[in-house]
Design brief:
Elements: E1 5-6, H1 15-24, H2 30-37, H3 46-51, H4 59-69, E2 73-77, E3 79-81, H5 82-85, E4 87-90, H6 92-101, E5 106-111, H7 118-131, E6 135-138, H8 140-143, H9 153-162, E7 166-169, H10 185-194, E8 200-203, H11 210-219, E9 223-226, H12 232-235, H13 243-249, E10 257-258, H14 263-266, H15 270-278, H16 284-296
Parallel strand pairs: 1-2, 2-5, 5-6, 6-7, 7-8, 8-9, 9-10
Antiparallel strand pairs: 3-4
Helix pairs in contact: 4-15, 7-9
Length: 300
């Protein structure tokens, strides 16, 4: 097994990214710091928390981390929910700067403020055509609308036209402000029915609705489940709810599962997450699909 594609970093804390986040961390996301970093961070203390990141990491150093983990390519993304949250957490232009430094290693996805309508649609197209972006990322829990709301549809249509995938947050969220139901698989069923050509990535695997997510991947030929931001070593623990993934993922949906680390959230080295993932009880040919081949199919 020689290649790995990480389908969700999602950001690299470079000095510019860290400086931007210091002043643009959305209040709605403070719950993520409590859950993943085990700290009670407030609007007043977010600056100190970011300062403790010590200025960030260079792209060159980050590539060394990827090399150590055996990761060939990694998805990095913009997140833009300016209208709904008042902040742009990860601006596309900073993602573009990172991608330019190693275009063969990064898979840049664009963020989009869907409330900006066609202006934002045209901006996504520009980043794809001019900057080589590979897809679109959307987070319903930050937008405040389920993914089958009509305001997403111009973006889905543009993704089909450009032949790029869309990665949509499809899991419980930790905001304390937006309900989990926003990302329930039932909404993605509607999207896939309306856009059968759309390559739709359910980011974070649809957890905790794993059975429903697996059935969607079985039903719709262009629905994928990406597993980032979950420690692989816990996926096989009885009672966590992941059992359907392995019941179906080793056979009937083996072509629809994508590896991702989410290392920035998990706070674990990429290499450790990769090694945990390789211990999952998958047939060798299925493991290769999950780690690499399935991701390639997104751009075929």
């Amino acid at each position: 097994m020689s290649k790995i594609i990480d389908m969700w970093a999602p950001i690299i804390p470079t000095p510019k990214i860290v400086a931007h986040i210091r002043n643009n961390f959305p209040t709605q996301m403070l719950g993520y710091l409590r859950i993943f970093y085990h700290q009670e961070i407030t609007e007043n203390s977010i600056g100190q928390f970011v300062d403790n990141m010590q200025g960030g990491i260079s792209v060159e150093k980050y590539l060394q981390i990827l090399d150590k983990a055996g990761i060939d390519q990694i998805l990095i993304t913009g997140f833009d929910e300016l209208t709904s949250c008042g902040k742009t957490f990860s601006p596309n232009h900073l993602i573009a700067e990172i991608a330019r430094e190693a275009p063969n290693r990064f898979l840049p996805f664009a963020g989009a403020d869907i409330f900006q309508g066609m202006k934002a649609v045209r901006e996504v197209e520009r980043y794809v055509r001019e900057e080589g972006f590979k897809g679109l990322s959307l987070r319903p829990f930050m937008i405040g609308l389920p993914p089958d709301d009509r305001r997403y549809y111009p973006f889905y249509a543009k993704c089909v036209e450009l032949n790029i995938p869309v990665s949509v947050h499809a899991s419980a969220n930790w905001t304390e402000m937006r309900h989990n139901e926003l990302a329930h698989p039932r909404h993605f069923d509607n999207v896939a029915c309306d856009f059968p050509e759309l390559k739709l990535i359910l980011s974070h695997g649809g957890y905790p609705w794993i059975l429903e997510a697996c059935l969607l991947a079985r039903k719709h030929r262009n629905v994928y489940l990406e597993l980032a931001a979950h420690r692989p070593k816990y996926l096989m623990q009885i009672g966590t709810g992941w059992e359907p993934l392995f019941a179906f993922g080793n056979n009937i949906i083996q072509d629809r599962v994508l590896f991702g680390t989410g290392a920035f959230l998990l706070g674990r080295p990429h290499s450790e997450i990769v090694q945990e993932f390789k211990q999952l009880p998958l047939r060798a040919e299925v493991m290769e699909k999950w780690l690499y081949k399935n991701a390639l199919s997104l751009w075929q």
